[in-house]
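HOLO CASE FILE
Compound: guanosine-5'-triphosphate
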Amino acid sequence: MLYNKFVKEIFFGSKMRMVIIFTREAFMDCCNDSEKKYVKTKKVMENNLNKESQIKRIALIGNPNVGKSVVFNALTGAYVTVSNYPGTTVEVSKGFINEKDLKCEVVDTPGMYSILPITDEEMVTRRLLISEKPDLVLHVVDAKNLQRMLPLTLQLLEAGQNVILVLNIMDEAKAIGMKIDIDKLSNILGIPVVGASAALNQGIDDIKNLIRRSLEDAA
Ligand SMILES: Nc1nc2c(ncn2[C@@H]2O[C@H](COP(=O)(O)OP(=O)(O)OP(=O)(O)O)[C@@H](O)[C@H]2O)c(=O)[nH]1
Ligand SMILES: [Mg+2]
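Model generated. Tokens follow.
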């Protein structure tokens, strides 16, 4: 009786508002196979962790074309899903690092030049940073253009993010004779810095080690 009244009020209220009740099953029906697998994997990982600790979330941030997606693929491998960010046509990939001592969700964001957004892609990345509050940000830069890219590192730090700086495309930087004092840069910035050549699968284990350490320190 009460239920009928409730349904009447919702569906036939004065403004004839329509409410769509979206059950978990209905949601799963709308997902594609990779999204279903992703949701399932996340559930299994959550169940394997103790109840209090949630899966940590890592966001890959950086200018366009610096190798974020190559780093993302090297870190996550399987269990990846690509979907449009809600309300936009901008694609966001999500995956997991699922190792014995390191379990986290990784989000590959669209390239951005500044956290003050101009393009749709930058707006999505800014929203991901603000609303989804990653536990850790991997700022990926092209080592050859370090000077041009460091202002975004500073913006991320000023915005209170927990940042690791990844100097990617080191192979090309070395080939043109660049020498970067990584320890000095790390001391000046006060954050972990690591060199990598993700396309050659170099430096990926070092990135994982720094992620492990940063997440432990933040816990
Ligand atoms: N030489 C070299 N090339 C790399 C390396 N990492 C990535 N690349 C190349 O850089 C280009 C851009 O890589 P992506 O991973 O698509 O870059 P992205 O940052 O995801 O780009 P957006 O998604 O457009 O922001 C590709 O051609 C990669 O093969 C690297 O370590 N060394
Ligand atoms: Mg990309």
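CASE NOTES: Residues 1-27 have pLDDT under 50 and may be disordered. Residues 68-69, 108 surround magnesium ion (ligand 2) (CB under 6 Å).
CLOSED: yes
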